Amino acid sequence: MVYGRSGDRFLDDPGYEDFFAAAAELGQPVFIHPQIPSSTLRDASYRGFDEMTELGLATFGWGWHLDTATAALRLGPTASPASPTCNGR
Q1: What is the pLDDT of residues 24-73, one digit of tens each?
Q2: Which of 49, 73, 77, 79 could tie 83 with a disulfide, CB 3.0–4.6 Å?
Q3: Do the domain assignments include residue 81?
Q4: Would you place residue 7 in the very low, low, confident or very high pLDDT band (cuts 50, 70, 90)?
Q5: DSSP assignment of the chain
């Protein structure tokens, strides 16, 4: 289980190629776990609501779903050449 990004590095970053190669070699799935959006994204998308509404939207209400979906899209067949699925893994 991994997050869809580490700081500004997404899962389609070439630095993750060995990780995905090992998972493929072992025949193991990789589960993408959502995380709280970055401060920049929270400022742009969720600020201005009361504290609990902001937190709910940024996490279980919307943000976690968007975070995980974006990570999956970056790994999909139309993603960058570094994407594991583009390399047959």
Answers
A1: 999 999 999 988 888 888 899 999 999 999 999 999 999 999 989 989 99
A2: 79
A3: no
A4: confident
A5: -EESEETTEETTSGGGHHHHHHHHHHT---PEEP-PPPHHHHHHHTBTB-HHHHHHHHTTTTHHHHHHHHHHHHHSTTS-TT-TTTTT-
Scanning the structure block, which residue is given the tokens 């929270």?
42
pTM, rounded to two decimals:
0.70
Residue 80 lies in a domain: no
Distance CA 66, CA 62 (A): 6
- Domain containing 14: what range? 2-75
d(CA 22, CA 64): 26
